[in-house]
Amino acid sequence: MSTDATWFAIPPPSVHLDARSYFTFYTPIQLVYFVSAVLVTIPNTYALRLSLFPVFAYLLWRTTAHLDMSNGNPLNEGNNLGLLTLVATVIMRLTTWTFQQKHFLRTSKYKDANERTLSQILYDGADLCCNFRGVGWDWSDHQVFINPQPHEVEEKQGAAKRKEFIRENIISYFTCSIFFEIALYILFKYPLEEPDEPTWSFFLLRSVHAFLYPVFTYGNLGGTYNLYALIGVCICGQSIEEWPPFYNKPWLSTSLTEFWGKRWHQAFRYTFSKVGGRPLSFITGRAGLVVGTFFISGVFHDLGYWGMHRGRGICCYTTPYFILNGVGCIVEATYKGITGKRVGGWIGRTWTVSWLVGCALATMSPFCMTDLMRSFSDALATQPFYLTYLLVKKLISTA
Q1: How high does pLDDT run on average in the chain?
Q2: Which residue of 114, 147, 274, 335 is surrounded by the most CB atoms within 10 Å?
Q3: Residues 6+ apart with CB under 8 A from 310
Q4: What is the 3-state secondary structure (H, E, C) of 298-341?
Q5: Contacts of 113 (CB under 8 A, 6+ apart)
Q6: CB-CB contact of 271 with 132 (8 Å)
Q7: Is 80:65 a contact under the CB 8 Å cutoff?
């Protein structure tokens, strides 16, 4: 893709981040998110949520169009990626909550939303803002069920489970850090530079990059989640049931449906299906549900990248990638309908990896990916194994 992309180009944002702009542009996003979350937990607020939607949408667009969190420094464009990712998250969840006719209930705490105090209502709103999979809520696809146990047994088992949870998350955090650091190092060490004429070495490097990007994402999101889980349980006193594993061993996937539906993270599954899948399903049924869900997933990712260069326009490549993966899932469903068998085994695993990497090669823009990775240029300096390496290197040099 060339550098002169002009899709959805807008005048470059001119408001730099300072104390004043933080409260006039950034804080409204947080308030919109929190107020919307609180309202959807309160019965009989449907009309109020509908009436506030245009106001909230305007505030989000105002920030999108004007706030520049890089303060004009190209090396800090990653801050704008984070800003637009946040805005995209809020607008999608705001849309879901606005058109939700029945209020949400935190079933792990209450049987009736009207029995809550004001502080409990506010706490539920805060939980909903951070709770993407609906753990403990009536809208979750993954309800947590606990078999009742005698109090003494439950107490002992709870303590043992808590220790095991802490141990597993510590191990997982450092494992994810290794994946993240290795992928990041290789991606920076061997960047993609689009040649005038395609070569086999360039194709091989693109293939390596296409494989490493999900590894990079796995390490980044997985490690961050493990850290938050440890903080939530060890410091904030939350139960371990509130922090189910973020991933489910995606490398064991034997089909695209299994990969995206069960093993890759499900953080946005509910939101994507509500905003993109459900509307399209009214037109084309099950196929529309699948493609619409993947389409919105791609738009969500591309909006974050668009945030880095709003004046230039969107560098659209993840939307086609996710749509193709939706098509792949439909192909699997068609295969099952014809043969009566699910895609699986080693053939299924080969198919899954080939489709994931092949779609990345077909849609991935070397220019856009290099541009994206630039926002992570300082990330290695904060990683545990890289810091350990620098410390050991310094100790050896001064010995």
Answers
A1: 87
A2: 274
A3: 9, 10, 12, 13, 64, 65, 80
A4: HHHHHHHHHHHHCCCCCCCCHHHHHHHHHHHHHHHHHHHHHHCC
A5: 41, 42, 43, 103, 105
A6: yes
A7: no
**Could you give the CA distance from residue 311 to residue 11 in angstroms, rounded to a whole number?**
5
Whole-structure pTM over 0.90, yes or no?
no
Are 98 and 32 a contacting pair, CB within 8 Å?
no
pLDDT of residue 226: 95
Q: Give CA–CA dist 312/10, Å, rounded.
A: 8
Q: How far apart are alpha carbons 296 and 303 in whole angstroms? A: 10
Q: Which residues contact 296 (CB under 8 A, 6 or more apart)?
A: 92, 272, 275, 276, 277
| Type of residue at 333 | A
Residue 379 has pLDDT above 80, yes or no: no
Any idea what DSSP says for residue 380?
G
The answer to whether 113 and 329 have CB atoms below 8 angstroms apart is: no
Higher per-residue pLDDT: 148 or 106: 106
Residue 67 confidence (pLDDT): 94
Question: What local confidence, expressed as pLDDT, does residue 153 receive?
Answer: 43
Tokens 């904060």 sit on residue:
382
Please tell me what DSSP assigns to residue 275: I
Has residue 30 got a pLDDT over 90?
A: yes
State the greatest distance between any 2 C-alpha atoms of the chain, in Å, as a whole number. Answer: 71
Degrees (nearest 5) of the Cα angle 145, 148, 154? 105
3-state SS, residue 16: strand
Of 245, 309, 252, the closest CA to residue 84 belongs to 309
pLDDT band at 387 (very low <50, low <70, confident <90, very high): confident
Q: Which two tokens stand for residue 328?
A: 């792949």
Distance CA 365, CA 246 (A): 28
| Amino acid at position 7, single letter | W
